[in-house]
Amino acid sequence: MVSIFAENLTKKFKDVTAVDHVTIKVREGQLVSLLGPSGCGKTTFLRMVAGLEYPDEGRVYFDENDITDLPSWKRNVGFVFQKMSVFPHMNVHKNVEWALKLRKWPKDNVTQRVKEMLELTRLRGFEERYVIQLSGGEAQRVVIARALAPDPDVLLLDEPLSMLDAKLREGLKNDIRDIHEKTKKTTVFVTHDQTEAFSISDLIFVMKDSKIVQSGTPTEIYNNPTDPFVAEFIGTNNFFKGKVERIIPNKEITIETEDGLLLKKDYVAGFNEKDSVLVCIRADDVDIITKKDLPEYTTVLEGKINKATFTGMMLVLEVEVDNTVLRTHLTGSKRFKYWKSEGEKILCGINNIILVKV
């Protein structure tokens, strides 16, 4: 295993800058995600780390070694592509074995290594099956087993779940985290899906328009976005433009929105009175409460339910508050209680208010 330091990487394709002076550090044994919308440069960055693209600027280091000029086949990297690349004319065993033969592993070690990889990826008993006999998730696990078989220093995964349906994505996402826990391979995972990144990552780098706009742990990215794009991209949100009206140091901040809502949040440093801010309230951070719950919340808003949409796992409510719509997600037994509730007056307790300077 090695650490990765990609310093100031830049890549242009004619007049388009795909990656613009991106620097990323990945500690040995860490699993990090590059998260961002399609076309932001994630895959191009990953391909430069793998040696499949050469940077116009910048260097790539594995530990202290500059490997920028090293061809991809000498980097000891396992790469899993977005499109499943199982060889259809080979069974599962031979697909995994192929990677070892390519690296000229000793014949005496090959059979045992294939067995270990199939055990790791929960494919034991599938040795003689061909791709047409596998589900999408099983086929992608074959690809991961093949990438890991030669014992790479680094594992790179480029949107490995995007070709799967929702249920298979959920299962394979958990498999990837479990495999990482067992192998401790330094891993970079590319995705446009925030749920994937938040579920499996030690650290997340959020990309937009070929640049990194924020990095941090999943909880840091979720609870403390420092960029308006990150606040909007992560989660299901309610946004309001406003100004900081009052600050009581070490106690609370009061914000007035353009719609006239007065919101209070626990004090955080870095804001001044009269600052213009973007107010972000996650739909998951809005509770439906009763009067006895009032002391538990810094901000409580009264409103009327305009619309209730049942999705199975949650109930999505659109609540009218002083001519402003506030969206909330209800889970547990409350999603049944408010299923047919249009027109009902309720109290909304706000758990967390995120402020971003604009």
Write a brief structural summary.
This protein is an alpha+beta fold and 358 residues long. The protein has helices at 42-50, 92-102, 107-120, 136-148, 166-183, 194-200, 218-223, 228-233, 334-337; strands at 4-13, 16-26, 31-35, 57-62, 65-66, 77-80, 154-158, 186-191, 203-208, 211-216, 237-248, 252-257, 262-266, 276-282, 286-289, 299-310, 315-321, 324-330, 345-350, 354-357.
Q: What this model shows, in words?
A:
25% of the residues lie in helices and 37% in strands. By secondary structure, it is an alpha+beta fold. The protein has 2 domains: 225 residues, Rossmann fold (3-Layer(aba) Sandwich); 122 residues, RNA polymerase II/Efflux pump adaptor protein, barrel-sandwich hybrid domain (OB fold (Dihydrolipoamide Acetyltransferase, E2P)), CATH 2.40.50. The strands form 4 sheets. Strands 6-7-8-3-9-10 form a 6-stranded mixed beta sheet, with helices on both faces. A 5-stranded antiparallel beta sheet has the order 13-12-11-14-20. Strands 15-19-16-17-18 form a 5-stranded antiparallel beta sheet. A hairpin with a 4-residue loop joins strand 12 and strand 13. Helix 4 packs parallel to helix 5. The radius of gyration is 24 Å and the shape is globular.
